[in-house]
Amino acid sequence: MAWLIIILLCLGNSRAQLLDVTNTSYLDFEDRLFGLLVRLQLEKFYDTLLVYGKDCAIPSLFERLQVPAVLVSSGSTNFDWNFSSLTLILSCSFQAEREENYRTLMKLQINRRLILLKGDIRPESVCDFYSRKEQHNIAMVKENFYQFGVVYSCRLFQHQNYEKLNLIDGKSIYIDQFRNMHGSVIRTLTDKKTPRTIPYRDDETGEQKYKGYVAMLINHFVEKVNATIEMQEDLIQEGNLSFVDITDLISKDLLDIGICEARTLKMSNYDSISYPYLMSSYCFMVPMPDEMAFGDVYLAIMAPTVLIMLFVIFCICSVLIIYMKERSWRSLSFSSVLMNDICLRGFLAQPFPFPRQSNRKLKLIFMLVCFSSLISTTMYVAYLQSFMWGLPIEPYLTSFDDWKKSRYKMAINIYEREILESLNVSLEGVEIFQHDDFARLRKSFNTEYLFPVTALQWFTFSEQQKFFSTKMFTYTEDFCLNHFDILSIPIRRHLPYRDIFEEHMLRQKEFGFTKNWIDESFNDMVKANLTSVEDLSPPPKDDTIEVHNLYWAFTMYFVGMGMGLCCFIFELLGPKRYWRN
């Protein structure tokens, strides 16, 4: 019994010492972990601690950090968390994070992760696991971290996929690995649509390269991150690719970045497009309005309002002249007022008989008649000469209703049909072309059509028209498909360097590179033989006036002569007593 009691006392003492060592180790580990979390916050501030794992409830640690902590014990969230990029992820064991929410995965892809390794799990296998998920900001600590202070940090572009760091060394645990991609491949394709992308052949190397305000953005980014572009030509099945095809390939994760404009119409989400690069309007380039025909000038100068006013003044003057001469209202009649000889001659700026014996009032009326004739004839002669010198043009098209009444047809490509249908515009008078055929027709400046074009594309057409003898098209911002068109770049949804690319895109625009590329786009197209400075405008019209242009002048002349002839015939055929009265 004595030996049994001694043995039990020894076992109890050993157990107490073991528990004390375990508690001390746990406290040391917690202190070391707290110090590491504080250091990570100093390296790059984080405002939230997202914790995955069942055994990660460490209240004392969270209280000391004074940072909001979210504990996900199941390893996955059930709804879309609106986490920011300043969130630090803590996993209490390897694969404790089993996030299945798609939106949360995208938001947390580039966030920093700290993994607590248990057992004999090797760091290289952990880095390989997260690399396949395209999550690269990974650091790990083992259970003996409190003893040695060793942290393992994943590295992508090197032979060994992790680096062993000691906290005493003071090296950064997390680095921006994609700032230097060491020649890694960026998969891409281009739709070769100008002026966004301008293909040309390099004289020195003989390789095909690209300019334009989209292609140059990608080229500079590739150079900045020390990567290489690889055109995925094997994905091209038949014909040329459109921006719609490239956007679809991006959404299937077959490409990294597209050198084109992203399709934004009828998209359920915008995960596969970048932050807006440029904004412009999407309106129509319409032919310059036709000049008025010479024959229509005579009708154009005769405004109905002015004619009515002159007719009223004529009648008033005629009534006053008849009354002043006869001193009675009895001589007034419909025919005597309208066929007053003095007023007719006076308003046509012709001489008329002036009564010898006339009072001051009658003279004043004659002066008013002369003044009215001077004003009316001078006004119409000035209008006629001005219109003949520079013919006025027809009104500009400012709406779909104006286009429906015009002689023009509307040319669109197959992708813009959906836009017209969404605007409830009838397709009558609309001709739909394939994308390449539409581009060729628009480049030909066919004045039988009006074409939709963005303000960025219109710049090159405007520059080309400077070499024309006459301007053929104009860009109207009143007649548009979309007043606020956004140009974004198609980009893979889980691209790990999306933030670096979007930062680069905004900086290029901020420093004026984008504007310079847009301004030089037409010159680049000329150098690449994609457009010309040839004058495509029609030859100037002959401005001589021919007989058929005087149609209305002869018509009014013969109508007047006919009316005078009819009156003369009625005088000859009518009884003399009737005409005397």
TrEMBL record:
One GO CC annotation: plasma membrane
Record's signal peptide: 1-16
Membrane topology term: Multi-pass membrane protein
Protein name: Ionotropic glutamate receptor C-terminal domain-containing protein
Transmembrane segments: 297-323, 364-383, 550-573
Location(s), subcellular: Cell membrane
Key words of the record: Cell membrane, Glycoprotein, Membrane, Receptor, Signal, Transmembrane, Transmembrane helix
GO biological process: reproductive behavior
Gene giving rise to this polypeptide: Dyak\GE11712
Primary residence: membrane
InterPro entries, per the entry: Insect_Ionotropic_Sensory_Rcpt (IPR052192)
